[in-house]
Recover the amino acids of this structure.
């Protein structure tokens, strides 16, 4: 494939496009304002903060409509802002790139972000540090928009680190809880590993192509030595794995559920964790040149989609089930992204529908927790459908979407990925289909344990429906969970084709029935039935004892933490201990030794300064002789 | 260039020297004419006018580019001469401000009222009672500065020797005039005089040998003679060069000719110590460079490694002995020895500024900058030393300064600034000076010397950081009993503040003085 032809040269920004930076600036400024303003802003800060993503969404929507009306060749717009850094021969511009890919992300981030801000007004109403929470949320929105709007890898990395920071701050938002503080730290540390991949990728790009700008990289990558291209692919994949909680860097996501539920919905389900997928899709010119790295992406995606589903089946904590499911769904997207240009559009398609239905379900879980005194154990739920009708109804729509019930959004987006995976190889296709089966099972289990069956409530718990400010976003997201697939199916592949390097986008009709589609639907039905069958009766109050190694492994997050502790943490601690000992004995020792040495020399030399003029004069005469000797030697030489 | 014989002296070019000499002479007259009570003011006015006029003519002459050889080839007006004259005059003005400070000493000068009296004798007590004063200090300082200016511009051996004596003799006297601890002061003066005489004798002998070798007293002619000397390796030449250099190195305080420095610095009245530390050193450094760069230019490959070796010894001896000093003035004395070593590093490089290359100022310019930076820090630090007192005079024990920075944050911060400049920490003038000197040595092919110098700075930094540590992090104890910071008059404060501002400004924005130093980068050959 000739990349030079597919790389679309962005057109210059005009009109509103030149003010696109406002989308980032508004939440950023408001975030700073809230952090600095102190108690004054306690009463209105959260309302101001809610306006920020709405304003950005308004700008984003206007730009999107403008792009819609343009020629295909005019849809990629570059917005250069200023010269950022100059270092030697390298210059870095601070610039934005608004194209078919980034504008979809903008809409998702600001759209879902706005809904979650609104929801949080209700959810965080009684929190003392509400203002700070909203300041962090706005910081996140600004950073995430920087990530997707950047026109080069370095600025993307700024956003990348910014969302990492916001994620860390929000996971450990309830820092009085030890578990939350630790979870935040864990997310941060694991993400550093991924960031290392990003830094190596950016450095490699600079060394090999001399630029980090997407368009220039696409032009020059063809001339780079293949080894470096393959390495680049792996470096970027490492970065993507960290941010998107893909195996082997998945362990932080489950713990990240310690954060307030709106955070889980926004950051750890709908937007930030999909940044890895964005990165891989954005880097398609690189992956197009290296089948090895693409294959690795697909393998990582497949492994993660199964691992996440596995974890989802064995958890009792409603948020952890959803977190496992998030891992699994992002695995689907990664798999699709690894399939090349054909899959990339489907990856983004699934990313967006997932953003809707997963945010919907997380917010629904938050609503359930709200009614159950913040209890997250599904074994303490049961029969809530009657007491929380809106939450139940909206959650059910998310449920249908995620298992891929015909004509819901997940049906379209996921089936396309499974079909594309079969095109790549039967193994990928079969495993992806198996994942769909497991998904149907564990999501049904979640529904049954939460909304049906007998009441297993703890004492003093009086479930009630959440206030309107929380249920309205649920309703909006539920509607989107159902119809987004129908709305975007067919259109999105054509729309994204230039941005993901797809020469021949093939569109699929709304009632495009294939053998694989039918089999998948059947498999999903079986999964759901098993889930219903196993959980139709009463649920035991505590986790049943089992020796089934599969279940045990699932309950232990597939031993991810044990692995990290054995192979990374312990050796790391030994290394640190060794280095500290080395530092203490050798480095400090030599410093102390040289200090003693100089001190000793000082005491010795001081004796020469005895106060007698005669010995001073003698020193001088000795100096004369010394100097004379030196000069004679110099003359001879 | 052949010696230009100037029939009619160019009075305009010599004006700074003549004016200063005249002012000093008038100062002597003042002692005889003016009444006792008014003498101090009269002296201050005379020397002030003399110094300012001399400075004005120096600036004016340099502005008009009056470069050339004067007084039958014995004095040379070139960039380094003008720069160092300016530096000497400014340093002298600041020194006189410290000298005439009275508030610190309950209305009296910091000098003995009657130098001829035996310490502790009734005669001395009487002098104290009658409030007599040695206002001769002012003309003495002026004569000394006059000698230094002549020394820095001298281009024949006789003039150089005379200048050496003209500036040394008043210094010997001034060293013995301390008001407190007079025995120590007199001891210092005697030591300085005896060792200084030895050095002068060695220098004079060297000039005689060089005259024998070259048949001329002119430094310039020496270079031509060496150039013409096909054989090379003449014993007369080598012996003469060594002896002349020893005389100059003694004044700079280069190891092993440094022994006098600590004893004299401690014993001399503190304003005079400050004056010696900067003025003597600056004048002697320029004289040394003139001899090396002009007279001994053909022998460059011979003396460069010798100077480099001396630099290493001097830096390390100064820095290492400084580590264990317990007296502030002594500590600063060793610090000045270490700085003499750093200056030699730049001299050893012997590179001229590449035109248009701002990063490399060249040896001469970098040393001129270094001297300015070092002078600011030295004057400032010694000025602060005069303010920390106890009943018996200045409290110069380092232990007596414990916790001083916390009790007097402003004074502590200013002292810290000067110490950091000594240590060569960025954002101070000392850093830029060190950097330029090291760059010059590096460009001259002396990379190993720069490495050694960096290590020596590291060792020396400990001296200053320990001082800062004592001031801020050690609690006041027995040693600090009775120690207090006396209120100084505007004179001392002017010196401290000017030096602090200069140190900071040159650290942040060095180009104005740096450009001036680059303008002064060439010795007239």
């Amino acid at each position: 494939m000739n990349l030079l032809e597919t790389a679309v040269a962005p057109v210059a920004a005009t009109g509103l496009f030149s003010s696109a930076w406002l989308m980032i600036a508004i939440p950023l400024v408001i975030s700073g304002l809230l952090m600095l303003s102190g108690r004054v802003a306690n009463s209105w800060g959260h309302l101001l903060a809610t306006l920020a993503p709405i304003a950005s969404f308004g700008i984003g929507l206007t730009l999107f409509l403008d792009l819609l009306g343009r020629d295909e060749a005019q849809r990629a717009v570059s917005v250069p802002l200023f010269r950022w850094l100059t270092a030697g021969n390298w210059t870095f511009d601070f610039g934005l790139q608004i194209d078919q890919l980034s504008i979809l992300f903008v809409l998702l981030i600001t759209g879902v972000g706005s809904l979650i801000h609104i929801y949080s007004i209700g959810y965080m109403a009684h929190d003392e540090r509400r203002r700070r929470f909203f300041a962090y949320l706005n910081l996140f929105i600004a950073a995430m928009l920087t990530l997707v709007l950047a026109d080069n890898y370095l600025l993307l990395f700024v956003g990348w680190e910014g969302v990492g920071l916001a994620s860390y701050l929000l996971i450990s938002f309830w820092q009085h809880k030890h578990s939350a503080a630790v979870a935040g730290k864990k997310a941060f540390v694991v993400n550093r590993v991924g960031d290392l991949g990003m830094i190596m990728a950016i450095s490699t790009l600079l060394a090999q192509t001399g630029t980090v700008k997407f368009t220039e990289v696409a032009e020059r990558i063809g001339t780079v030595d293949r080894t470096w291209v393959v390495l680049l692919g792996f470096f970027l994949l490492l970065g993507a794995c960290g941010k998107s909680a893909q195996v082997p860097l998945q362990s932080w996501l489950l713990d990240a559920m310690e954060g307030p539920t709106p955070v889980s919905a926004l950051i750890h389900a709908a937007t930030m964790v999909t940044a890895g997928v964005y990165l891989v899709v954005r880097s398609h010119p690189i992956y197009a040149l290296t089948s090895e790295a693409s294959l690795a992406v697909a393998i990582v995606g497949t492994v993660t989609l199964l691992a996440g589903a596995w974890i989802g089946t064995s958890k009792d904590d409603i948020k952890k089930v959803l977190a496992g499911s998030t891992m699994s769904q992002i695995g689907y997207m990664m798999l699709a992204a690894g399939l090349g240009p054909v899959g990339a559009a489907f990856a983004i398609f699934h990313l967006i529908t997932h953003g809707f239905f997963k945010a919907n379900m997380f917010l629904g879980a938050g609503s359930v927790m709200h009614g159950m005194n913040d209890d997250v154990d599904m074994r303490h739920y049961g029969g809530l459908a009657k007491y929380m009708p809106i939450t139940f109804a909206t959650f059910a729509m998310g449920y249908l979407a995620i298992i891929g019930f015909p004509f819901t959004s997940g049906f379209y987006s996921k089936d396309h990925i499974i079909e594309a995976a079969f095109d790549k190889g039967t193994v990928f296709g079969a495993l992806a289909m198996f994942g769909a089966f497991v998904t149907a099972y564990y999501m049904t289990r979640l529904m049954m344990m939460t909304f049906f069956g007998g009441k297993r409530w703890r004492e003093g718990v009086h479930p009630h429906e959440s206030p309107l400010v929380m249920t309205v976003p649920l309703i909006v997201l539920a509607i989107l969970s159902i119809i987004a697939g129908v709305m975007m199916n067919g259109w999105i592949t054509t729309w994204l084709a230039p941005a993901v390097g797809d020469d021949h986008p093939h569109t699929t009709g709304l009632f495009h029935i294939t053998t694989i589609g039918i089999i998948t639907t059947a498999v999903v039905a079986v999964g759901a039935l098993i889930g219903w069958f196993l959980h139709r009766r009463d649920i035991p109050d505590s986790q049943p004892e089992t020796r089934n190694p599969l279940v045990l492994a699932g309950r232990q997050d597939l031993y991810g933490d044990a692995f990290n502790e054995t192979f990374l943490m312990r050796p790391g601690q030994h290394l640190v201990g060794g280095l500290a000992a080395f530092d203490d004995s050798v480095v400090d020792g030599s410093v102390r030794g040289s200090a003693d040495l100089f001190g000793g020399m000082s005491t010795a030399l001081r004796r020469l300064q005895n106060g007698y003029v005669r010995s001073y004069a003698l020193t001088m005469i000795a100096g004369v002789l010394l100097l004379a000797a030196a000069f004679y030697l110099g003359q001879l030489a | 260039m052949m010696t230009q014989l100037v029939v009619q002296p160019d009075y305009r070019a010599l004006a700074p020297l003549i004016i200063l000499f005249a002012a000093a002479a008038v100062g002597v007259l003042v002692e005889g004419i003016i009444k006792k009570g008014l003498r101090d003011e009269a002296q201050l006015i005379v020397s002030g006018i003399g110094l300012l006029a001399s400075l004005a003519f120096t600036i004016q002459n340099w502005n008009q580019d009056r470069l050339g050889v004067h007084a039958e080839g014995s004095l040379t007006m070139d960039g380094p001469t003008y720069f160092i004259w300016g530096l000497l005059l400014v340093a002298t003005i600041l020194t006189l401000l410290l000298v005439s400070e009275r508030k610190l000493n309950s209305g009296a000068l910091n000098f003995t009222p009657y130098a001829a009296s035996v310490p502790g004798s009734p005669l001395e007590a009487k002098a104290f009672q009658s409030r007599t004063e040695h206002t001769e200090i002012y003309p003495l300082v002026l004569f000394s500065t006059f000698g230094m200016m002549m020394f820095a511009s001298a281009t024949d051996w006789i003039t150089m020797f005379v200048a050496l004596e003209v500036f040394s003799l008043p210094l010997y006297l001034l060293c013995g005039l301390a008001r407190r601890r007079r025995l120590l002061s007199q001891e210092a003066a005697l030591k300085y005089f005896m060792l200084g005489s030895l050095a002068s004798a060695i220098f004079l002998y060297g000039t005689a040998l060089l005259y024998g070798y070259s048949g001329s007293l002119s430094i310039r002619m020496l270079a031509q003679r060496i150039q013409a000397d096909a054989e090379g390796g003449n014993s007369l030449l080598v012996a003469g060069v060594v002896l002349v250099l020893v005389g100059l190195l003694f004044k700079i305080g280069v190891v092993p000719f440094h022994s006098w420095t600590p004893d004299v610095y401690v014993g001399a009245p503190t304003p005079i110590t400050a004056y010696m530390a900067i003025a003597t050193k600056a004048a002697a450094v320029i004289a040394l460079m003139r001899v090396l760069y002009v007279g001994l230019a053909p022998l460059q490959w011979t003396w460069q490694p010798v100077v480099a070796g001396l630099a290493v010894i001097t830096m390390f001896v100064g820095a290492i002995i400084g580590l264990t000093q317990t007296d502030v003035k002594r500590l600063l004395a060793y610090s000045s020895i270490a700085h003499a070593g750093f200056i030699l590093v730049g001299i050893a490089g012997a590179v001229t500024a590449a035109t248009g290359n701002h990063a490399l100022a060249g040896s001469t310019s970098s040393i001129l900058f270094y001297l300015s930076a070092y002078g600011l820090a030295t004057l400032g630090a010694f000025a602060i030393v005069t303010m920390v007192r106890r009943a018996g005079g200045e409290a110069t024990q380092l232990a007596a300064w414990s916790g001083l920075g916390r009790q007097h944050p402003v004074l502590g911060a200013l002292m810290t600034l000067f110490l950091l400049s000594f240590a060569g920490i960025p954002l101070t003038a000392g850093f830029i000076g060190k950097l330029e000197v090291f760059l010059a040595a590096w460009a001259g092919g002396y990379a190993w010397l720069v490495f050694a110098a960096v290590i020596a700075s590291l060792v020396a930094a400990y001296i200053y950081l320990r001082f800062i540590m004592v001031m801020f992090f050690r609690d006041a104890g027995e040693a600090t009993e009775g120690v207090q910071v006396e209120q100084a008059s505007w004179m001392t404060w002017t010196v401290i503040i000017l030096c602090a501002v200069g140190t900071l400004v040159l650290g942040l924005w060095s180009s104005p003085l740096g450009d001036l130093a680059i303008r002064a980068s060439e010795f007239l050959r």
In short: The beta strands of chain B are 68-70, 75-77, 388-390, 393-394, 484-485. The radius of gyration of chain B is 22 Å. The mean pLDDT of chain B is 91. The CA atoms of residues 20 and 132 of chain B lie 26 Å apart.
